[in-house]
Design brief:
The protein has helices spanning 8-13, 28-34, 47-50, 62-78, 98-112, 126-134, 150-153, 163-178, 191-200, 221-224, 242-259, and strands at 20-24, 40-43, 84-88, 116-120, 139-144, 183-187, 205-208, 216-219. The protein is an alpha/beta fold and 275 residues long. It folds into two domains: 8-240, Phosphoenolpyruvate-binding domains (TIM Barrel, Alpha-Beta Barrel); 242-275, no CATH class. β1, α2 (28-34) and β2 form a beta-alpha-beta unit. It is globular. The N and C termini lie far apart (42 Å). The relative contact order is 0.11. The structure holds 3-methyl-2-oxobutanoic acid. The site of 3-methyl-2-oxobutanoic acid (KIV) has 10 residues, from loops. 3-methyl-2-oxobutanoic acid binds at residues 24, 42, 44-46, 88, 185, 208, 218, 220.
Length: 275
């Protein structure tokens, strides 16, 4: 990660120079832990599933994104950290018309202090992206598997499975690039499709469940930290497994409270530590 904060222009210029890294963050303490180690933080609408227990991202609201975006920015500010932060535009806040999109994109920027927004959609959303960019808000695109389309598509469907699918992805990527996006998330594709998209455009393609040849990678932080039990999607690498650690700590705490071992003298005011 860089010493000074990246800008949208700098991120675009890094295509082919270095692999870009991005993790989601939704809270101040997690942002402080992750920021020194990645190029970008994404306050993703995955927050709805990860922290709020929703089944999908469709119930996430603008107020939730503002609250989590502001928390991340406060955490970084308090620690004087320079991370580039992108906030997701939630379902219903941008896709119906460009006026809504511009108003909500500006609200996310103004009320969080973040540096860019991300929204889902390709050719169909290019006019909206163009207007948000023209209003002065940097946009990261998101094509391929679009989680906000889960009901419309009847599930999470992998993209780019045949030549027509690859051509559709390339058309979407080119439309998002032409509309002025500085980078693009490409989610849930076969690797050959991800390679073709990455080669087809001049802005960085940040993959998730895509291919190693993308210009960078993004993961949901709780996934890569192994914070949950249950199904681990194919594309998720767990770099650690915190869930059993947390359970172990909680069990140890309860055991020690019940046995009277905690709080021992070390943890009681007015009693000096031995030695
Ligand atoms: O909301 C999110 O976390 C995302 C990533 C999966 C890219 O959009």
């Amino acid at each position: 990660m860089s010493e000074t904060r990246l800008t949208p222009e700098k991120i675009t210029s890094l295509k082919g120079q270095t692999k870009l890294t991005c993790l989601t963050a939704y809270t101040a303490p997690m942002a402080q832990l992750l920021a020194p180690h990645v190029d970008m933080l994404l306050v993703g609408d995955s927050v709805g599933m990860v922290l709020h227990g929703f089944d999908n991202t469709l119930d996430v609201t603008m107020d939730m994104m503002v609250m989590h975006g502001a928390a991340v920015m406060r955490g970084l500010g308090a620690a004087q950290m320079q991370s580039f932060v992108i906030v997701d535009m939630p379902y219903g806040s941008y896709e119906d018309n460009a006026q809504d999109a511009v108003r909500n994109a500006k609200r996310l920027m103004d009320e969080t202090g973040a540096h860019a927004v991300k929204l889902e959609g390709g050719v169909d959303l290019s006019a909206v992206i163009g207007q948000v960019v023209a209003a002065g808000v940097p946009v990261m695109g998101h094509i391929g598997l679009q989680p906000q389309s889960v009901i419309k598509e009847g599930g999470y469907k992998i993209k780019g499975k045949d030549q027509a699918g690859i051509e559709k992805l390339i058309a979407d990527a080119k439309a998002v690039e032409a509309a002025g996006a500085f980078a693009l998330v490409l989610e849930g594709t076969l690797p050959e499709a991800a390679r073709a998209v990455t080669q087809a455009i001049d802005i960085p393609v940040i993959g998730i469940g895509a291919a190693v040849e993308c210009d960078g990678q993004v993961l949901v932080c709780d996934d890569m930290l192994g914070m949950h039990h249950g199904h681990v999607p194919k594309f998720v690498k767990q770099y650690t497994k915190l869930a059993p650690e947390i359970e172990r700590a909680a069990q140890n705490f309860s055991d020690e409270v019940r046995s009277g071992a905690f709080p021992s003298e070390d943890y009681v005011y007015g009693v000096k530590k031995a030695g």
